[in-house]
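INFO batch 0412 | record 1 of 1 | parsing
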Amino acid sequence: MDACPVCLSNNFQKTSRASIKCSSLGCVRWTHASCLKLSYAELKKRANSFKCKTCEDRQRDITSQSEVRTPSAKMPNQEEAAGGASPVFASDTQKLDYIIKEISRLKNIEDKLGELGSRIELVDSRVTAAEASIVNCQQNLALQDRKSEEILQYLRKDNLEINGIPEQETEDLWQIFEDLSKAAGYHIPKQHIQNIHRVPTKIQGKPKPIIVKLLHSHHKKGLLAAKPRLETDAINIPGDKAPIFIADHLTPYQRQLFADARSIVRKLGGRDKGASTWVFSRKIYLKVPGDTRGRLISTAADLAPFQRLTATTATS
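INFO prediction complete | emitting tokens
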């Protein structure tokens, strides 16, 4: 009898209660029950299925070698699936589990894409609403700017702007204006003047304009209606003769509009070609060849069609 594979002793009692025989085919080894720490009931229960330690070790080595020669099938990961590798399945059950997991993963991606699409639609709607709000704000601002401009121009309704009178060290602007009104044929006494002063100008080499604020607007209209064509010698201003211009006192914005309108008139050939521009009652008008009456110019947008007309005329 071979030695016990556990304690390597060959001392066996002649009773089945003391030891157990290996059930492996061809093995005659007995193992001490005490080495296995088995009770009598357990010894009897395992009598037909017990394998000794030597046979178990041999079986374990055979199994390990088999696993090395034939790797067990594994579930393909997402990287392998994405890379186009063909998954290997050990059974149809494993294949079915893989398909179920893939369907679940794709469904999750679909749900996330749907959620992302909903968010994009929400953002698009908010952007559209914001753009509409911006356009509305721009329109309101343009309207407010126009109203503010009208108010500023209305505050100047009794004002005149006089250009071309040279500056002197000691000058009496009140007397100069009264003499000017007399020379123009519409006398306005000093007592009808509320205020008069010069204002700065950005044009180098030209005298500062004179701003006159009259007490009554009809005096302003009467003097402008006289359409005086005066020069400095008419009011005894020393020095070389120079033209004097009397006009409405425009706001800076209106003054720029009027300058742009005059530029258009010059490009269209001036009065000889039927083009002209003028200011009447604080409003700017522009007439181009073919027009029977002047068109009101309130904003830069009103000049755009005429600017395109000048470009067309220059090309032809």
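INFO post-check: The chain has four domains: 19-69, 89-154, 158-249, 251-316.
INFO record closed
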